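Standup notes
- DV: blocked on the single-chain target, sequence here:
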Amino acid sequence: MVVEGKRFLTSPIAPYLGFMPLPLHDVIIGSILIALLSYLAFRLGALTLSGAIASAAIGMIIFVGSGCWGWLLIIIIFFVTASLFTRYKYAYKRCLGAAEAKGGARSWINAVSNGGAAALFAAAESLFGGDIFAAAFLGVVATAASDTLATEIGLLSKTKPRLITDLRRVVEPGTSGGVTPLGTSMAVVGALIIGFSAYLLGFFGGSLSKVVAVAAVGGILGSICDSLMGALLQEKYRCAVCGRIVEQSTHHGVQGFFVSGIRRFDNNLVNLTSTFLGAFAAMAVFLLIS
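- DV (later): unblocked, structure below
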């Protein structure tokens, strides 16, 4: 709904969520909330200090840029979901050698690679409107959610992953580009979580089919692109100590041997690129069904 040039989002629960151009007191309340949540995430070990600062900055850009609480709530839903699944059976994942570093605490580079594109599209929506950048925003967040759930739950699969570019080839858990039926299913779940959350928060006027289609297609395709780039383009090294193929140039404190991929095209750049690709896919779906 548009009133005097301003966008209002509508949904069954929108009246209780404050969907309106942000007055100063909302900006103040939102700033305090974002700061408190970032601090709490830091204290709980979900974010490093740099990650907390970067997340707070991204959250503020999204909140002020979008002009409503719903976009911020989508980011919070993603972050809480991602943090819970990252911590789930963390000790087992660490034994596999595939767990997130620092106990799962995410640094500024993780925050930017997963949320930087979302902040950019929120700012674009504030400048140009039309909901097209709202679709891109959902594509970004759905891709990040899909990739996170596919990775964190896929590591728990009873079956060995197979390389997405050659499904006959079995690879070790945690290998970039490795996929399992469980992980693939969770990628779909991640996208749907964002899609249904966005519907409840009134995106695109509360159109269930449009919101879910945009988020699902954007998230799933973005996650597939992430796996493809992980298999084909991400830099990989052979550890000089254990002989394992790893994503880091240094393993066991020793410089490894470059094996394949593009140098410096690491997991964070893969994540950032895949969120943009998921955003473009979401924008295409939005335009097709508008």
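- Follow-up: The radius of gyration is 19 Å.
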